[in-house]
C-alpha cells in the first residue's frame, strides 16, 4: 500500500497556493489559511484525497484498466514522462491534440502509420529512395513520435485520467467529461475544481510537488498490476488443481468397475448385447397392467349384478314407506288448516 506522509508534502511545498487576489472562490473549502498574502492549502484534505485516488487507481489497474497521465506544462513534463514509463502507462506531456480521445479512431490510425513507417525503415525499404525522400519520412516519424509517442501503447480509451494543472489542460478535461471518464487532478487555489471528479488540492507549479504526486500515482499503478498478476496466477493454479482432481477420480476402468466386474465381463457371464435399455421397464409395466386387470373387477358389471339382485320384497317395502310419508303430509296439512 502506498504510504503518504504529511512531512513529505510539506517538504515539497505542496501547501503553497497563489496570491489571495488570484484565488478561485470554489476553492474556499480546500484553503486552510492566508499568510503574507498567499493562500495555504489544507494538506489534511490533500492526504485524504490522495488515499482515495490511489485506491481508485489501484483497483482500476487491477481490473485491467489504463490510466492516462496528462501534464504539458514545463514543470510537469519530465515527471509525467519518467513515472508513466516506470509504470508502463500512456501519457501526454507535450501538447494535447484536439480529439485525442473523443476522436480516438483517427488517432489510432496515426499511431498505426507511425509504426508502419518505423517498420519500413528498420526493414531497409527506404534504401532505394532518394536522400530527400528519406529525410522527409524521418521528419514525419519525428513529428508523430513527438505528438503521439506517449499514447502509442494505449489500446483504447482510458478508464481514468490524471491531470496536472486544471486550467492548462482544460481541453483534456472537457473531452474526458464528454466520455464520462473520471478525472483526478492537482487543483491549485486559482483553479475551478467543478469539472474534476477527484480533487487533489495541491501546488501544481512546484517541480518537487509534481514529482512526488506522480510517484504516488505510479506506485498505485504498480500495486494494481501486482494484484492483477496474483489473481491470474491464482486462477491458473485453481484450474490446474481441478484438472488434476478430475484425472485422479478415475485413472482406469478397474477403478470405475472393480476387479470382480471386469472378470465377469471378460468371462462372458455378463452379456448385455442385444438387450435394449428399456426392455426391463417395458416388461415391468406390462406385468403391472395385467395384474391390475386381473385383480380389479369391472365396475359396470358389478353395478348390473347389484341391480339384478333386487328382491320384490324390497320393492314392496319401499312402496309402503312412500304411502306412510304421504299420509303424514296429509295429516300435517289438515292440522294446519284447522
Question: What does this 3D model show about the protein?
Answer:
By secondary structure, the protein is of the alpha/beta class. Among the domains are: 168 residues, 3-Layer(aba) Sandwich (Rossmann fold), CATH 3.40.50.10490; 38 residues. Helices cover 58% and strands 10% of the residues. The chain contains twelve helices and eight strands. A five-stranded parallel beta sheet has the order 5-4-6-7-8, with helices on both faces. A three-stranded antiparallel beta sheet has the order 1-3-2, with no helix packed on it. Helix 6 links the parallel strand 6 and strand 7. Helix 2 packs parallel to helix 7, helix 3 packs parallel to helix 7 and helix 4 crosses helix 5. It starts with 5 loop residues before the first helix and ends with a helix.
Amino acid at each position: 500500500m502506498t504510504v503518504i506522509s504529511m512531512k513529505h508534502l510539506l517538504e515539497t511545498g505542496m501547501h503553497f497556493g497563489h496570491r489571495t487576489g488570484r484565488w478561485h472562490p470554489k476553492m474556499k473549502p480546500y484553503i486552510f489559511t492566508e499568510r503574507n498574502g498567499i493562500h495555504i492549502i489544507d494538506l489534511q484534505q490533500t492526504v485524504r484525497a490522495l488515499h482515495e485516488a490511489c485506491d481508485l487507481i489501484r483497483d482500476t489497474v487491477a481490473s485491467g484498466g489504463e490510466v492516462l497521465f496528462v501534464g504539458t506544462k514545463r514543470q510537469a513534463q519530465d515527471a509525467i514522462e519518467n513515472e508513466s514509463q516506470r509504470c508502463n502507462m500512456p501519457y501526454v506531456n507535450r501538447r494535447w491534440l484536439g480529439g485525442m480521445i473523443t476522436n480516438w479512431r483517427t488517432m489510432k490510425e496515426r499511431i498505426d502509420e507511425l509504426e508502419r513507417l518505423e517498420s519500413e525503415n528498420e526493414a531497409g525499404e527506404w534504401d532505394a529512395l532518394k536522400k530527400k525522400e528519406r529525410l522527409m519520412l524521418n521528419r514525419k516519424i519525428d513529428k508523430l513520435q513527438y505528438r503521439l509517442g506517449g499514447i502509442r501503447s494505449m489500446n483504447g480509451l482510458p478508464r481514468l485520467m490524471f491531470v496536472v494543472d486544471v486550467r492548462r489542460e482544460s481541453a483534456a478535461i472537457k473531452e474526458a467529461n464528454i466520455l464520462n471518464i473520471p478525472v483526478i487532478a492537482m487543483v491549485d487555489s486559482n483553479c475551478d475544481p467543478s469539472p474534476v471528479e477527484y480533487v487533489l488540492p495541491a501546488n501544481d507549479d512546484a517541480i518537487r510537488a509534481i514529482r512526488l504526486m506522480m510517484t504516488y500515482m505510479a506506485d498505485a499503478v504498480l500495486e494494481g498490476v501486482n494484484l492483477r498478476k496474483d489473481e491470474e496466477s491464482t486462477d491458473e493454479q485453481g484450474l490446474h488443481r481441478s484438472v488434476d482432481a478430475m484425472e485422479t477420480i478415475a485413472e482406469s476402468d478397474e477403478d470405475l468397475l472393480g476387479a470382480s466386474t471386469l472378470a465377469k465381463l471378460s468371462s462372458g457371464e455378463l452379456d448385455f448385447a442385444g438387450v435394449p435399455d428399456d426392455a426391463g421397464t417395458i416388461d415391468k409395466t406390462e406385468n403391472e397392467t395385467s395384474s391390475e386387470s386381473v385383480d380389479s373387477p369391472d365396475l359396470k358389471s358389478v353395478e348390473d349384478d347389484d341391480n339384478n339382485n333386487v328382491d320384490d320384497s324390497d320393492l314392496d317395502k319401499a312402496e309402503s314407506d312412500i304411502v306412510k310419508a304421504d299420509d303424514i303430509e296429509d295429516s300435517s296439512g289438515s292440522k294446519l288448516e284447522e
